[in-house]
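Colleagues,

For the teaching module next term, I've prepared a clean inverse folding example: a structure given as tokens, and then the sequence designed for it. I'd like students to try predicting residues themselves before seeing the answer, so please don't circulate the second half yet.
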């Protein structure tokens, strides 16, 4: 049996404050402790939060990933279209291989070296960029084709042009793209669940920060989700974090999602201008007064008509959560909302509103006529005369 441990969107280097700096490292530690019997590790992109991370971030990432390298490799390399010297092959066959691809965050421009290429050269990872590697263990062969992130509009064409399916293997495709209908934040996509390449036993996709497991066209589609929350928007709130183990035995593929205990929870609360301070405090307390392994991140958006200061909330809850506060100024507009059906034209809407605001009874000109006259610049004199009651009718 071959066991592959898959996780995604580590985002090394992303942190809200010092307290969250080690979140990816602690999660990887948890994954490592529970999966020392794995044969392969796959990280599906966004290993780093930026394409040129700071030295300190790289160091932290290496110290985290290095743990896996203490585990002896149980696979051997059968073939690959990736340029690999003897040292590389020796490294893969010496310690547990970590396969990576680029995400949109750690992708570099064409021809430019990238941090994952450097870690590959240092034999810490096996970085795939439109390459495949066939591994073998106990006479079972699996081919992994890694497709690093490309702009969404060309993803489908580019993938079809490059993808390689290898015969007599269990075939795994690793991606980091938007796949419709799983849209995370960008609306752009060219890949859909029903136009993914066929004949792959497993398709693993990063990018989408929440777990997905689906069977499509005879393939298992898995999106493990991210290890940490980085967008901090509503769609990323209340999401449990997972990694996935894939077991391949005699060509039969089984997957298992495992909840990450040490993932930091993220909550999002939005209050309208009519919500009282008490309500806001109670709602926050309701969320934070539970037991968490790590202090949760709570983003609080408060709508107000004035510059009321809510920063005391950050202090008040500082021992229970990391509170991210945003007050949004909203104007108190007294314009009535008209449903579309009730408005014949923008002009009718305007006339209606002007009438209401100036009290048309005392106004010397009918508003409808005023608007008509305004269309003709030669009428200005006429309008003035009517307004000062010099002229009574049109
Ligand atoms: Mn990501």
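(Answer key — instructors only)
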């Amino acid at each position: 049996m071959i066991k592959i441990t898959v996780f995604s969107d580590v985002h090394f280097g992303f942190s809200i404050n010092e307290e969250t700096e080690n979140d990816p490292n602690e999660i990887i530690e948890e994954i490592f402790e529970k999966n020392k019997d794995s044969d392969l590790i796959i990280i599906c992109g966004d290993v780093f939060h930026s394409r040129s991370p700071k030295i300190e971030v790289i160091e932290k990432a290496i110290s985290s990933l290095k743990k896996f390298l203490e585990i002896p490799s149980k696979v051997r390399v059968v073939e690959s279209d990736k340029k690999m010297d003897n040292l590389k092959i020796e490294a893969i066959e010496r310690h547990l291989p970590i396969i990576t691809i680029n995400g949109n965050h750690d992708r570099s421009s064409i021809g430019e070296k990238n941090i994952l290429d450097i870690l590959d050269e240092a034999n810490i990872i096996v970085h795939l960029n439109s390459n495949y590697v066939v591994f073998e263990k106990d006479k079972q062969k699996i081919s992994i084709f890694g497709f690093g992130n490309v702009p969404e509009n060309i993803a489908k064409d580019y993938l079809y042009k490059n993808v390689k399916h290898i015969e007599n293997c269990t075939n795994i495709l690793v991606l980091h793209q938007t796949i419709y209908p799983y849209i995370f934040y960008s609306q752009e996509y060219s890949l859909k669940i029903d136009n993914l390449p066929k004949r792959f036993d497993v398709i693993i996709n990063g990018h989408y920060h929440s777990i997905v497991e689906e069977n499509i066209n005879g393939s298992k589609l898995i999106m493990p989700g991210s290890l940490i929350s980085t967008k901090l928007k509503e769609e990323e709130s209340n999401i449990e974090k997972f990694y996935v183990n894939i077991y391949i035995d005699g060509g039969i593929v089984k997957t298992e999602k495992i909840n990450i205990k040490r993932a930091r929870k993220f909550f999002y609360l939005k209050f309208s201008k009519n919500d009282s301070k008490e309500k806001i405090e109670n709602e926050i307390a309701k969320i934070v007064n539970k037991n968490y392994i790590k202090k949760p991140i709570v983003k609080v958006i408060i709508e107000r008509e004035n510059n009321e200061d809510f920063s005391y909330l950050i202090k008040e809850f500082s021992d229970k959560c990391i509170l991210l506060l945003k007050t949004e100024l909203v104007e108190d507009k007294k314009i009535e909302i008209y449903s579309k059906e009730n408005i014949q034209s923008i002009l009718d809407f305007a006339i209606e509103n002007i009438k209401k605001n100036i009290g048309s009874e005392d106004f010397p000109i009918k508003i409808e006529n005023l608007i008509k006259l305004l269309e003709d610049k030669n009428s200005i004199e006429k309008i003035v005369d009517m307004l000062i009651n010099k002229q009574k009718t049109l």
